[in-house]
Amino acid sequence: MAIAMFSSVCLFCSFLFQSFVILQTKIMKLPILILTTRREEGTKQEKMSMEQYLPRELVSNILSRLPAKDLLKCKRVCKSWFDLLTDPHFISNYYVVHNSLQSLEKHLLVIRRPFLSNLKTSISLLSWNANDSKNLVSSDVLNPSEYNSEHKYWSEISGPCNGIYFLEGNPNVVINPSLRQFKALPEFYLSGSSKTYSLSDHSGFGFDSKTNDYKVVVIRDIWSKETNERKPGHWTADLYSLNHNSWRKLGAAIPFPIEIWSSSWVYTYVNNCCHWWGYVDDSGRREDCVLAFDMVSESFRKIKVPRIRGSAKEEFATLAPFNESATIGVIVYPVRGQKKPFDVWVMKDYWDEGSWVRKYSVEPIEEIHKLVGFYGSNQFLWSSRDEGLVWHDCEPETEQMKDLQVHGKNGSLRAARYMESLVSLKRGNEFSWQLVSCSMVPDHLLDPRK
Q: Which of 110, 264, 305, 351 is the most exposed place for a label (fewest CB within 10 A)?
């Protein structure tokens, strides 16, 4: 076993050296790191320190280029690597550095229902190269065995937030696909539920940097069981904390009156705030607006929007993050038509409601039907009329469109950019917190004709 460990370490370090030489420097020779082990009072000890051969900064640079799944193995090489890979600074830096290197490689996290006969949802990781003339797409399916049932399904995807995603459905879950971690949230109960019920709810997901906590906020409308009536603009909100693994009632006031549309499916997390596309009914005239929730201060804010579309019956409006998630924008496109143009409106200054401008317009496109995701940098993810997933880069110099070869029945397609992350979902005693490990298996439903 010691010989096998020794061989694995040597091969791995050789791979790291070759990768670093190709990607960054012209180092002529790097000493091979040799670890020998000896038994002393039942434990393995390092005979030589890694820092004798490689500076910590150099090792950090090399390891930041590796996928998260490989770094999990690296933790077992030696104590100094374990300490480095679990250091909060390295984890934060890895998320920025590693994902910034993926300029040509595109990666998506996709949820969809492949079959009409049941609600079972597939969670897929799609990858392709934007410059690949062969248009090859690879796909793997995240397989949480404990939730592999026709009665378990997900309808919305929120993320990435530092590489963590929230899936809304049955059950609600947070996942880190990079670490193959999958965690079901505890059920929540409406206070006073014996007299009231809810018909619609809207979720938001984000990170509280002050408490290092990931949170889910859910807004619900409340109806009376006695009268089956609902006061317009009457909402209640609950907040989930990953650190505490529990729900609590939010005391923050929702700025009434406001209603929330159900057509905005793109994760829009900007300046610590999640956002929903809504409207105010003013004497029978509906005026669009945005509802924001700050994950740090746990407060709501209503953002005014100019008249950027004619009618909700004729045009969809979908929120999206812009300018490296520094502000929000809205994509407006027609509900009907074989070919669909679209306009992109952006707040130039996130804190100034008067700074809305139309950034650009795109000529009619035949392949698109409904916006189901946003990749960033003017890259859009659409469902087609045959319920396939289409990636569209609308930059004038690089404009291109790609059929990603996956389909979702009954409008179930949702997509988000996939980002590698070392952020763990583990908090405290995981036995009682139901953290599930997942496997990644080949996607046999990838369309072989494409």
A: 351
Q: Are 53 and 20 contained in the same domain?
A: yes
Does residue 117 lie in a domain region?
yes
- pLDDT tier at 231 (50, 70, 90 boundaries)? low
Q: Rounded distance, CA 276 to CA 345, Å? A: 16
- Position 228 scores a pLDDT of 83
H or E segment and range at residue 433: helix 430-433
CA atoms of 448 and 406, how far apart (whole Å): 10
Single residue among 100, 128, 162 that ends a domain in this structure: 100
Which pLDDT belongs to residue 244? 92
The alpha carbon dihedral of 416, 420, 423, 426 has a sign of positive
Please list the alpha-helical segments (H only) found in 144-243. none
Confidence band of 131 (pLDDT split at 50, 70, 90): confident
Cis peptide before 88 (omega within 30 of 0): no
Both 39 and 176 in one domain: the answer is: no
Q: Which amino acid is at 192?
A: G
Listed in sequence order, the DSSP H helices in 24-111 are 56-63, 68-74, 79-85, 88-100
- Element containing residue 8 per DSSP (H, E): helix 2-23
Task: Check if the beta carbon of residue 413 is closer than 8 Å to that of residue 112.
Answer: yes
The first and second tokens of residue 110, run together, are 């996709």
DSSP 8-state class, residue 431 = H
On whether the CB atoms of residues 399 and 385 are closer than 8 A, the answer is: no
Q: Which pair of structure tokens corresponds to residue 77?
A: 């090489």
Q: How far, in Å, CA of 65 to CA of 96, rounded?
A: 11
Q: Which domain holds residue 81?
A: 2-100
Residues 109 and 126: their CA atoms lie apart, in Å, by 7
Judged by DSSP in three states, 146 sits in helix
Exposed, middle or buried: residue 311 (CB in 10 Å: 0-12, 13-18, 19+)?
Answer: exposed
CA pair distance 273, 415, nearest whole angstrom: 20
- The per-type count for the chain, helices as H runs and strands as E runs, is 6, 31
The SS3 call for residue 425 is: coil
Return all residues near 404 (Cβ < 8 A) that are at least 6 apart: 108, 126, 128, 137, 388, 389, 390, 391
